[in-house]
């Protein structure tokens, strides 16, 4: 279930558990649990040769593309944005989605190699030539908010109706983190919209 947008201000959010050492430890723990769950579903030392169902293959591809897009867009944000809040959010996404991609890749390889995911070229292409506030607005809207909304729906669907036990476990473990990313993105969007409104009123 998607978490409701955080009501606190961004400075408070930045000081909250999501950005403290406690959060830094808890999220990797969630990824670790995801990997452990995936590992536990297979016999030790054995590689599963059975192919994934069409539904599960589609999930791996869609989740891979979503993650690759988050990572690629996040790297752009580090150089194209002049806003510290946006860059901090982007750095967090690069770190978390890299861990998630690694875990999904481990599962996919057990069933035979699935084509490596690539970022959504239309999204990345629309961001490449933007700078500053224009980049921030597009990045927050297309990647941070819309991207994570779709990711939440994707992981929720797999956790409920996936066919492969390891993928279902991975999706279930990743869903709370993805939902948290979505809530963070919504708060970031709200904060930046308020900031733009204040700037307009003071002109």
From TrEMBL:
Keyword field contains Lipoprotein: no
Entries under InterPro entries matching the protein: DUF4142, Ferritin-like
Residue span, DUF4142 domain: 55-188
Signal peptide span: 1-24
Keywords: Signal
The organism's place on the tree of life at top rank: Bacteria
PANTHER family xrefs: BLR2558 PROTEIN
Protein name: Exported protein
């Amino acid at each position: 279930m998607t978490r409701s947008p955080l009501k606190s201000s961004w400075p408070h959010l930045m000081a909250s558990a999501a950005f403290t050492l406690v959060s830094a430890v808890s999220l990797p723990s969630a990824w670790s649990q995801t990997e452990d769950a995936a590992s536990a579903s297979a016999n030790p030392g054995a590689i599963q040769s059975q192919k994934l169902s069409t539904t599960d293959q589609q999930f791996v591809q869609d989740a891979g593309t979503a993650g690759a897009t988050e990572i690629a867009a996040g790297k752009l944000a580090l150089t194209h944005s002049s806003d510290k809040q946006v860059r901090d959010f982007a750095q967090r996404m690069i770190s978390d989605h890299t861990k998630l991609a690694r875990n999904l890749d481990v599962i996919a390889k057990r069933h035979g190699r699935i084509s490596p995911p690539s970022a959504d070229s239309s999204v990345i292409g629309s961001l490449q030539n933007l700078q500053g506030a224009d980049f921030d607005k597009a990045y927050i809207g297309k990647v941070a908010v819309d991207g994570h909304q779709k990711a939440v729906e994707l992981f929720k669907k797999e956790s409920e109706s996936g066919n492969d036990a390891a993928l279902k476990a991975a999706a279930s473990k990743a869903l709370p983190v993805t939902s948290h990313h979505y809530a963070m993105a919504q708060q970031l969007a709200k904060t930046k919209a308020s900031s733009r409104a204040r700037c307009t009123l003071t002109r």
